[in-house]
Fold these 2 entries.
Entry 1:
Amino acid sequence: MLALPFCLLFLVFTVWPVLQSLFMSITDTRAKDLRTPFSVDFVGLDNYTRALSDENFLRAVRNTAYFVLVGVPLTLTLALAAAVALDRGISRFRSAFRLGFYTPVVTSIVAVAVVWQFLLNREFGLINTVLGWVGISGPNWLGDPDWAMPALIMMASWRNFGTGMIIFLAGLQAVPWALHEAASIDGASAWQRFRHITLPMLRPTMLFVSVTTMIGYLQFFEEPFVMTNGGPLDSTVSMSLYTYRQFGFGNYGYAASLSYLIFVVVAIVTALQFRALREKE
Amino acid sequence: MNRSASGKWWLYAILSVAVVIVSAPFVWMVVGSLKTTSELRRSPPTWLPENATLDNYSQLFSRLDFGTYFFNSTVVAVVVTVGNLLFCSMLGYALAMLDFPGKKALFGVVMATLLIPGVVTFVPLFVLVANAGLVDTLPGLMLPFLAAPFGVFLMRQFILGLPRDLLDAGRVDGAGELRIFARIFLPLCGPALATLGILTFLGSWNNFLWPLVVAQTEQTYTLPVALALYSKGQNATNYGLLLAGATVVVVPVLLVFLAFQRRVIEGIATTGIK
């Protein structure tokens, strides 16, 4: 009986839409069919084959791959570096630093995207001003097809590394300090100890952080929506943004199939990472 | 270890620079929101505002309707948070303490949906909400988020750690099941409820895709939707106004977060590593 309220809501607003989405993805449902649900036709896997030959969607897939393949390692590196520095390197002000690094995580992506759009401005943005001090003439970040995606990746890593850092910090508690001491008596350098003791023992944590970060990045949406609108020259259209656009055009069936493709990618990537990190053990 | 660690002044220096870099966008946002747009367009930029003004903020709340958006965001976040606290603790308790048929399967299904991206469900969800006539209403913004699987997981894990004897003792004393849950277990769940409450509130406040789809007129915009749409519309180059808008979106959650930061960080750490 205690389970009932949740289960009802869960059934209506999660389970039903997941199944309905699968159903819609094999129909030609469009916005105008909302009132006449029986007029839709089954089209089998047409939506899926259409997606795989839709040059614009494939573009979005490549952009998303770029964002994930560069953004996830960068975010993880920053997170791990901050966690190791805070865990062993210092003994005072630890919680203040931790708080400072974590703060961007809790803020709205839309709001920080608006702020970064201003920071990245070519002429009067803070970033190019600072680059100017050291004699670098900064690019027209969001207006240049080559620089727009790096700018988005930079912002996403800035906003998200705090989560990974917190989880790494918790994982580092499990690394026995005695091992480090023994190794350092045997003459192992700090880097060797990190490489051969800390990293292997952090593997489960690493798996968790990389999977959750990757799942998040595979769906990135707000950043291009606010900052570039997918441009310039479609260089920052993500899979989610493209799906949202198809929905906006009223192509519900097609949008549903695209969203399922995103889901499949998420599932495959998660499974692969579990295997890759397990096998090394 | 502590002896050598406290001597690493260079590490403190690097970390301090890093903290400055990480917080710079927020400082720049707040300082910028007090400048006029013509000052913001100057190159090189000014550091402190020449004539600090609250003009941008008064425009937000007079010419634009940020008061309404603020109200909408708050109402949605509060209702969603209360809903999750209630429903997730109920199911979490049932899964942790009670025996009923299909318990394992139910938990499995709920956990499986944790992985499903929000983008998978929004199209049929929109159709559902549209057929119920709830597009462009606040209930339409809230309903799909009242019961999220994450909260069930969090509450179940926490309640599993509570002594089962309490349940038996309550039954021996003749208390009803609902009473045992509400009077004995719920008060003990304080820390978990606090963590879940804050994380849910932050998530709802910052939520974007769904409100963007459902809120279609200014009466139901939430803050992120309003800010995103203004940043693309005719106010796109009115930087002062946009920075003030971003400040209004960010500062309330920063305050909530700073007040409860221990809970948030512990929550992330404990649910993160299982």
Entry 2:
Amino acid sequence: MSVLKKLAASAAMAAATFATPVFAQDDVRIAIVVKALGIGFFEAAAEGAEEAAAELGNVEIIYTGPTDTTAEGQIEVINALIAQQVDAIAISANDTDALVPALQRAMQRGITVISWDSGVAPEGRQLHLNPSSNPLIGNMIIKLAADHLPDGGEVALLSATTTSTNQNIWIDEMMAVMGDYPGIDVVATVYGDDLADKSYREATGLMQSYPDLDAIIAPTSVGIVAAAQAVVDAGKVGEVNVTGLGLPSEMAGAIESGASQSFAIWNPIDLGYSATMLAYELSQNGVEATSGAEVPMGRMGSLTLDENSEGAMADPFVYDASNIDQFKSIF
Amino acid sequence: MTDATQTRHVPDRLNSRAARIFKSWEALLLAVAIAIFVINSFASPYFLSAWNLSDATFNFTEKAMIAFAMALLIISGEIDLSVASIIALASTAMGLALQYGAGTTELVIIGLTVGVLCGAFNGFFVTVLGLPSIVVTIGTMSLFRGISFIILGDDAFRGYPSSFSWFGQGYIYWVFTVEMLLFVIIAIIYGVLLHKTNFGRTVYAIGNNPTGALFSGIRVQRVKFILFLLTGLMSGIAAVCLTSRLGSTRPSIATGMELEVVTMVVLGGVNILGGSGTIPGVVIAAFVMGLVTFGLGLLNVPGIVMSIFIGLLLIGVIALPRLWAMAAARRKS
């Protein structure tokens, strides 16, 4: 009988899946693959992708990703997308190298592959869309902290995982320009693994280990919120300034409470929009992603590719008390 | 009834063989697997393609290799939660050897050796010092991966030789991958080992009653030590396959895989408290998990929904027979 029950349950599941709209085969299907689902930043990017799809007219967006930020999980997603013969995959990678064999297979089967946000090694994609240029971001995160520390002070970094491609690059770029900010000392770098609870504990630990800490720089949207909460809970608002990269909707409270003076982010809606436009150009309009090429991306202008087939979309944008209300409802 | 006493035949079970098979866990699981297969074929036009199904097997082959050894370990009343970390350490050791010019053969030997050594490390603490395996392997779970992090930091080993990619990316014939072949061979070996050898019987005996087994002349600690070695070895084999498939090593490789392996074993009908379970059950459970994740993936179902579904499947398949038994008992009374 349990077999029958099980079958009934499975049949119910099948009925539910049949209820989802059947895809029109003429549509160009562009898959937006993210590091993990349920992250505000990527939800906003998906919104931008839908905007591009609406503008292009005949595009269907498949927004997908694994449960947690693992390369293995993304490979399973890529295999499923190859099987569905999508037209293009635009991916924000959990691992620069481990995805290369799977994405190469996708390209062999005629699928356009681009990476955006967090990149894939050049042999595993046709082009990479950087949200901004890494040196500009690296400079921006330390500038945000330094602007509020005219007399210098101690700052600490709260990053995502030790293997997060972009966080590591930004931190390297930041370290490279530390000479421009005399009196600012980076006392520690800790990793919250992009998990809210772990980031919170790491931020609390920083304040305990360094009582004179003046700022926490978190170049990750999960870490910055957790750090701001940790500062509020520790009663150190006004003493420790949390800054870095975050989402306006999630950071509005921290700006109001004063735990964060300012933070920066590019516009993820623009990023998802641009990635979709680029994938469409490569897949449908026969644009070649070669060094020096200028690939159009709708309202965002065009992307100029360097020798690694990479390009930068725009400069990061600073959010503070003056503009947070305007943006917090957007993403 | 009288016939049985006349022929002095004492039945060792009350139901007929056919009834037993029909009512068995494996039959239930097989029905679930077939149902999922049929549903998937209807739900997605891309499911019934030889190449796509071949790709789908990568979702479970490596995990299943470990699950076979884990099944024996759990039947014996122990557990190894460090398997994913053993993969990380074995993969890191291979990557390190690569920097010193090791070829494919050496890489495989190193991967397997590190796996066995890690298994021996776990086995030593459990069987010689008599510590609980869940505590020991939670410790080594952090220890082994920690060593990988110390060696690699945020770096990665890449540039494995092209002949090494055969294990995780190679095909034996048409759509049949090297990993599939390994999966089948390992399944047969473990099936024979558990169900057809004295060693297999001792594993059950230990799981059901370690003291009784000891007084029956079974060298309990030695058998358990061998099971830890086997689990380590299988993790080493999985490390070779996964590293080959990814073409690179990072310390975060195979994160969280231990829980998927244990899920597979429990779904396969192995009693988490030890004493019972079969290899065919684990084989079918591997297919069930692979088919579910791939089928839902084809429908672009978000990963979190997939996890929920796997969780419900696990609880459902475990709880239903128990609920059925309770209902039957109530009806009788």
